[in-house]
Amino acid sequence: MADAPMRGGARGHGGHGGEVVWRGAPAAATVDPMLAATALLAYLALAIGGLGLGEPVGSARSLLAPAWLAVLAAYLYLMRRWPVGLPAAALLAALAAFLIVQSARSEVPALALAKVDGFLVAGPIVFLTWRYGMEEFGPRFLRGVVRAGLLVLFITLLHKAAFGLTDRGTRYFLNGPIVFGWMMALMAMLALRLACEGPPGGRRRAALAVAAFAAAVVWSGSKGPMVALVLAGALFLLLERRIGSILFLLAALLAGGFAAAEYGVLPERLTAIYRIATMSLEGRDFGSVGVRALMLEDAALLFGSHPWFGVGSGNWVVHSSIATHAGPATYPHNLVAETLAEHGLAGLAVFGAVVAYVAWRCDRFGLAVLVLSGTGLLFSGDMQYWRFLVFLPLALCVRGARGSRP
């Protein structure tokens, strides 16, 4: 039986230089409630993540657990098939088995469980909501997620205006500043794709959305999402052969960034990027830059003493000499350092195989999102946020008509 056509009507991009066509009728002008709900759920699944495992009973995340389980079951039913192919299923099963063993070694079981929750429990929910949206609605889904992102940004502005617009210690509505920065960077990438592919009128609106989301990344005061957005955006434009756009982007960033730093209008935390670039770090940079260098050094020492399987999931905070001097840090703020310190060479091989498979399956935009997530996780975020690195790019890899599986 032939694959059912997708609802949508624009072209996507296939991996390895090929092109994917999302087939179907042109998008309708009326609002599609299922599309809007799926787009909002996709944003929330990625931003919130997990069922609250490892957290105290009654936490906000744990109270939402029944709803997320219902979402998982609903989208499995809507897809009416197993959503991944045998290679992906085998790799993810091996990864899950490895993490179960590593979590059993943990001296901080709640932390190890929280990592598994954010990665391997939240990950499938992220995958199903995003994958269903991509297959069912095509490029309309991406526009829906961008609209959901704009809605969340608007509510976040209202929330911060009431409780501390420039206070980074005040939550950015759903998330802290780092994850908010990641989400805004991802929304900017989605809008950038729409700006490259949509009709002229839609491209102008998408370009304005890119600017709004990029400004939100700067507002978060998080260096990782900013660097990640620049690299991923440049990569996507390069893969799209938009060299002029890349040169304009880089020139605008350099001129604007250095001018803002010189005149003191950048958020204080982001001026560290300027001081790193000009080799003029100061004592005030220790809490942002210096402490990370010590964390990496500590992770290297732990890897050296436990090279094969690391110290076990969540145990960096127990064995690290710097953890007690780094505030509430429970991880080394770098995905490679965390992998080597807690999981050793075995973990590097398992995780590396999964990421390599995802990269192989990705189309051009998926590769850019992989770079976005990977770069962000080099600055901060522990395993529970690896759903950004594995399940999100995998969900975006729509290679053809409905029914294709990664």
UniProtKB/TrEMBL annotation:
One of its GO terms (molecular function) is ligase activity. Keywords: Ligase, Membrane, Transmembrane, Transmembrane helix. Residues 209-351 form the O-antigen ligase-related domain. GO terms for cellular component: membrane. This is O-antigen ligase. It is a multi-pass membrane protein. It comes from the Bacteria. It is found in: Membrane. Coiled coil: none annotated. The chain crosses the membrane at residues 34-53, 60-78, 84-101, 113-133, 145-165, 172-194, 206-239, 246-266, 340-360, 367-386. PANTHER family: LIPOPOLYSACCHARIDE BIOSYNTHESIS PROTEIN PA4999-RELATED, TEICHURONIC ACID BIOSYNTHESIS PROTEIN TUAE. It comes from Hasllibacter halocynthiae.
